[in-house]
TrEMBL record:
GO terms for biological process: potassium ion import across plasma membrane; regulation of monoatomic ion transmembrane transport. Belongs to the inward rectifier-type potassium channel (TC 1.A.2.1) family. It is found in: Membrane. The gene is LOC115232143. Keywords: Ion channel, Ion transport, Membrane, Potassium, Potassium transport, Transmembrane, Transmembrane helix, Transport, Voltage-gated channel. This is G protein-activated inward rectifier potassium channel 4-like. Residues 127-282 form the Inward rectifier potassium channel C-terminal domain. It comes from the Eukaryota. It holds the Pfam family IRK_C. The keyword ATP-binding does not apply. Residues 10-119 form the Potassium channel inwardly rectifying transmembrane domain. One of its GO terms (molecular function) is inward rectifier potassium channel activity.
């Protein structure tokens, strides 16, 4: 989805979260640029001071030496050949200003990089969803079924699964709603289902006449235009951070009259074995 007009400008106002959402190559490019700009800016100030008041700085006689002096000051590398003399008040002001601003820039950039590495999206990528969903019979009812699994050893607490049916509709007033959402019933009588993530789980929605999938199933899925959005939320028991994993299934991703291959089995020592090579495998009913 592309945004135009004021939408992009509002993202600029929220620079922190905009930075977190950037691609990695942009982050790796911005990180050194911010520091280089600050070194160049204060390098110009030091160069101006050395030109107007030559007794303030020792051995700073060009912009290149002023840039190196700026880098040494902000990165607290330490003074050697170039240093501040005690006869100039303006150099003290610039020194304090650059040291303070340098600490703020360093803290912000390190904090942003840490948040970038610890984003919830990284944990959500360890939640696996089946490539396809199937429609099969369960207790004499057709059901929409997909499989999900937690690949991490740490579990998810209060894990909830919500299914949303997304489609386009036209109201009686001839208003076109491009994206309309209907909650699909999961489980017996709820719009969400709490699951235990100790093993891969099959999530099913019973297709009754009240289900929005029912009419599309009778017409045929080949020419249907809808999307089933899956939202899985839970709290990581190791970090206490709430995560959300998402996947969607289009009509072309739904296979009729098939069911998932069982991947759980017991070994001779009564240990459960999970064969993830068959995680996406399906077979005809």
């Amino acid at each position: 989805m592309k945004m135009s007009g004021w939408g992009y400008m509002r993202k600029i106002k929220d620079l922190y979260n905009t930075f977190l959402d950037l691609a990695w190559w942009k982050v790796c490019l911005i990180y050194p640029i911010v520091f280089i700009i600050s070194w160049l800016f204060f390098g110009l100030l030091w160069f101006q001071i050395s030109k107007e008041k030559g007794q303030c700085l020792a051995n700073v006689d060009s912009f290149y030496s002023a840039f190196l002096f700026s880098l040494e000051t902000q990165r607290t590398i330490g003074y050697g050949h170039r240093y501040i003399r005690q006869t100039c008040f303006s150099s003290y002001v610039v020194l304090v200003l650059q040291s303070s601003i340098g600490i703020v820039i360093h803290a912000l950039m390190v904090g942003m990089m840490y948040d970038r590495f610890s984003k919830n999206n990284n944990r959500a990528q360890t939640i696996l969803f089946s490539r396809n969903a199937v429609i099969c019979q369960r207790d004499n009812f057709p059901c929409f079924v997909f499989r999900t699994a937690n690949l991490q050893a740490t579990g998810l607490v209060d894990c909830q699964v919500v299914l949303k049916f997304v489609y386009s509709t036209i109201t009686e007033e001839q208003e076109t709603i491009l994206l309309d959402f209907i909650n699909l019933q999961v489980g017996e009588d709820d719009v969400s289902q709490e699951i235990e993530f100790c093993t891969p789980v099959l999530i099913a929605h019973r297709i009754t006449p009240a289900s929005p999938i029912y009419d599309y199933l009778e017409k045929g899925l080949e020419e249907s235009q809808f999307e089933i959005l899956v939202l899985l939320t839970g709290c990581d028991e190791a970090t206490g951070v709430t995560i959300q994993a998402r996947v969607s299934y289009l009509p072309r991703d739904i296979i009729l009259n098939h069911r998932f291959v069982m991947i759980e089995s017991l070994s001779n020592s009564n240990d459960w074995i999970l064969d993830f090579k068959k995680f996406h495998s399906i077979l005809p009913e």
